[in-house]
């Protein structure tokens, strides 16, 4: 994340250096350590769940893996070094540590923003344009998009190898080593505002528009009813079509519920991203117009905690709002008996292909009629539980 250190111009008249208070060191170190450890464990579990569980390898979950990797990068490159700064009050990782850690901080931040934008667009296409989604929202295309996101952000963040460097702040009573900037703070304003616009404002505006369109489809449009299906069926096949229509109705209702649940979960991720990043982004913008930056230690700690919470809380959201993630988490943690895991796993894995494909379609009369032609005998699929992705 962007450094909060002052520019060299402001460090020429430094008075007596005052160390952090014991209260600040204890509180900041414990809070940051707990958040970072829980966040690292949670994001590693998300990655393991998707990579080791066959039915979890969907396009949306691939973007969540990309987000989890970015969050891991933020927690390890930004969170853990902040703990040492709170304890020692000085930079302890040297020159190359400053360059690499600053690079990975920005890389994780920008990659997480791009990953959120990517899965928002993917959900919009899958729900609002189901025909296009059949060849746009595929696993192979998701992997290519993720590869492009990381390639782009990796190249974009290379500039921080040249812009960041360690500084010696000479006080009256001590010399402090910090990881700061090579040039005065005013030269970083274009970069700050470009990051603020491209990696924060633009993704949030796009997400607001797309989730509004998704909500119109999922929550305002009624599902097709049985009478409509009956009118489309012939009189001679009345008995058979009645049974098929009831089962298709159950498919439609369960799939729509699944989509609503997945969309709510992803929308919560976006809302928390906006809320928890807002204090820090606001501070950067405000400091850009101040002659002397506002650097209150407790407020900086609050901003940092919000950022690290954003990177650590996503696995908690998945566990709370997704039945499949919750079951997969329990399986990895071995919290349930092996005997109870086997039937559930076999059922889910046997229907993973049908569930994954059906998740990408929007429930409409035309699509349901096409499914009736493709699957005239729906007895097998009537028992499938279409829970969240």
Automatic annotation (TrEMBL):
Region (Disordered): 229-257
Gene3D superfamilies, alphabetized: Rhodopsin 7-helix transmembrane proteins
Chain segments annotated as transmembrane: 26-51, 63-83, 145-163, 191-214, 262-278, 298-321
Topology in membrane: Multi-pass membrane protein
GO cellular component, one term: plasma membrane
Compositional bias segments (type: Polar residues): 236-247
Cellular compartment(s): Cell membrane
Keywords for this protein: Cell membrane, Disulfide bond, G-protein coupled receptor, Glycoprotein, Membrane, Receptor, Transducer, Transmembrane, Transmembrane helix
PANTHER family reported for this sequence: THYROTROPIN-RELEASING HORMONE RECEPTOR
Name of the featured protein: Thyrotropin-releasing hormone receptor
